[in-house]
Design goal:
This protein has about 575 residues and is α/β, with parallel strands linked by helices. Among the domains are: about 25-40 and about 50-200, Rossmann fold, CATH 3.40.50; about 460-565, ANL, C-terminal domain (GMP Synthetase, Chain A, domain 3, 2-Layer Sandwich), CATH 3.30.300. The protein has an 8-stranded mixed beta sheet, sandwiched between helices. Strands 16, 17, 19, 20 and 21 form a 5-stranded antiparallel beta sheet that branches. The chain has a 4-stranded mixed beta sheet with strand order 2-1-11-10, with helices on both faces.
């Protein structure tokens, strides 16, 4: 067996070693503007934004940040759904020399406060409807300025007039903020700021472009430091993998949120790197997605299994023309084989599974899209410039094919480290290898298989959910004595969040009350879907709750149901 058996499967069109230029991420926007100034960069709900407008708007935003005192290395948070302002804010912050902190718009006050304090962000660009939430926590953070924008700001007429009424009906209130003091309006910035180029020295290897928050063995969210090199290398790997794509001629469907590193790399960066068009949707709605594909004809569609499942299960899917789709790379959770087969039959395109982590910008493995060599059930082979091995516990020697161990990777996309957490960074590295925390094995041909995810991580609907986040909220409820949260199998979301509860003696509560309590303190995707009340929880001799035992119980229940049916 060769040292790197996966290389035998590389088609001649893909080199295992890439030659990408040592330029910052935002320089690709400058290049796209110069090469395709009038080409559509963004399509958003009927509105087109050219590369010229995107470039100049990003420079305006960058210069405005400079006027607010933002200096190189300062953190700028972006709390938006997929929309033109999110793209402008992202590249604008990078032009200004800032580090972007992507923040989920679904976050509660508690979650916003933690992330802003930990990152030390000085400015936040957010959706106007989120202003009340941000205002309540700003005193506990380093935030000095809030920049607000609305979906209507980039809607075409007459949608821009109608949307505020829809928004008020949806949320029950509307927000009106004046452009003064620490509050700024994105629309006013675009009117007053100048699109002047900014000269900024950059260190390709060391300068951080992004703080992407994730969890880890401690359960506390950690800021993953991704450099310009990390992001450029991974986008370049993606470009090499999609070697049939043509510069300036592809359209990428942007359903994956940009606050998720996968959507940011596979849509936000890759589109600009190639001078292609990104078709943005602020949220995933099946019918809207189908209509968009039918009308806008995207060729590339990165997604997650729940997205593909949702599309396939729509009762009118056959009424829409999905034949423009050529290539789809699925991530965030395991891709069921039956979904892969059915989606390819419906669209005529290719859908393959990949693998990666926030710490790896994110992709490290994938099946070959344009080849018959892909292996179903496998996450594929390492991407260009990427090496991967299976390591045993406390071992630095790779295990032979077929043996289960921890998946380790190394390559230029591996993070610089965790923000202000050197001890956590050290724990995840071993002799130059990044330890993923995921168990798997490699077969004789060099294809990798995931056996189990990180011990505690729940991946529901493509979202990463860390049990401790949920448990900490539950423990604040006065009726709860003990609790543990686990991911249990779910046919649609992959996993769903289940809470096992032990109540205090003489105290009662209901599922409805706990659900309301959690929704007030957690983002919606983290809220448990199932509650089970127990007299006691399984524990070790030293009192540690055995979460894994509960998960195994759920799997056994599913097996019994399957046998009985």
């Amino acid at each position: 067996m060769t040292e790197k058996p996966w290389l035998a499967h590389y088609p001649p069109e893909i080199s295992h070693t890439l030659n990408y230029e040592s330029i910052p991420v935002h320089e690709y926007l400058t290049r796209a503007y110069k090469k395709f100034p009038l080409k559509v960069a963004i399509h958003f709900l009927g509105r087109d934004v050219s590369y010229k407008e995107l470039y100049e708007s990003s420079l305006k935003f960058a210069n405005y940040l400079k006027s607010l005192g933002i200096q190189k290395g300062d953190r700028v948070a972006i709390m938006l759904p997929n929309c033109p302002q999110g793209v402008i804010g992202y590249y604008g912050a990078l032009f200004a020399g800032a580090i972007v902190v992507q923040t989920n718009p679904l976050y509660t006050e508690r979650e916003i406060s933690y992330q802003m304090k930990d990152s030390g962000a000085k400015v936040i660009l957010a959706l106007d409807i989120l202003f009340p939430r941000i205002s309540k926590v700003i005193k506990d953070t380093d935030l000095e300025n809030i920049i607000l924008t609305g979906i209507k700001d980039y809607l075409p007429f007459p949608k821009s007039l109608v949307y505020p009424f829809i928004q008020k009906k949806q949320y029950g209130f509307s927000v009106k903020v004046e452009h003064r003091g620490m509050n700024h309006l994105f629309t006013e910035i675009m009117k007053v700021a100048k699109p002047s180029p900014i000269e900024m020295p950059f260190d390709f290897e060391e300068d951080i472009a992004l703080l992407q928050y994730t969890g880890g063995t401690t359960g506390f969210p950690k800021g993953v430091m991704l450099t310009h090199k990390n992001l450029i290398s991974n986008a370049s790997m993606c470009n090499a993998w999609l070697y049939k794509c043509k510069e300036g001629e592809e359209s990428i469907l942007g359903i994956l949120p940009f606050f998720h590193v996968y959507g940011m790399t596979a849509v936000l960066i890759l589109s600009v790197l190639l001078g292609n068009r990104m078709i943005l949707l602020p949220k995933f709605d099946v019918e809207t997605a189908l209509k968009t594909i039918d009308k806008q004809k995207p060729t590339l569609f990165p997604g997650a299994p729940t997205i593909y499942i949702g599309i396939l299960n729509h009762p009118d899917v056959q009424k829409y023309d999905l034949s423009s789709i050529v290539a789809c790379l699925s991530g965030s959770a395991a891709l069921p084989v039956e979904i892969q087969d059915k989606f390819e039959k419906v669209t005529g395109g290719k859908l393959v599974e990949g693998y990666g982590l926030t710490e790896t910008s994110p992709v490290t493995h994938a099946n070959l899209i344009y080849s018959d060599q892909r292996v179903k059930g496998s996450v594929g082979i390492p991407w260009p410039d990427t090496e991967s091995v299976i390591l045993g516990v406390e071992s630095t020697t790779p295990l032979p094919p077929g043996e289960i161990g921890e998946i380790a990777v190394r390559g230029p996309q591996v993070m610089k480290g965790y923000w202000n957490r050197p001890e956590d960074t050290e724990m995840t590295m071993r002799d130059g290898w990044f330890l993923t925390g995921d168990l798997g094995y490699m077969n004789e041909s060099g294809y990798f298989f995931i056996v189990d995810r990180k011990k505690d991580l729940i991946i529901a609907g493509g979202y990463n959910i860390y049990p401790r986040d949920v448990e900490e909220v539950l423990y604040e409820h006065p009726a709860i004595q003990e609790c543990v949260v686990a991911g249990v199998p779910d046919p649609y979301r992959g996993e769903t969040v289940k809470a096992y509860i032990v109540l205090k003696d003489g105290v009662a509560t209901t599922e409805e009350e706990l659900d309301k309590f959690c929704r007030e303190n957690l983002a919606a995707f983290k809220v448990p879907r199932i509650y089970e009340f127990r007299k006691e929880l399984p524990k070790t001799a030293v009192g540690k709750i055995l979460r894994r035992n509960l998960i195994e119980e759920e799997k056994e229940k599913l097996k019994q149901v399957a046998l009985e049916s």
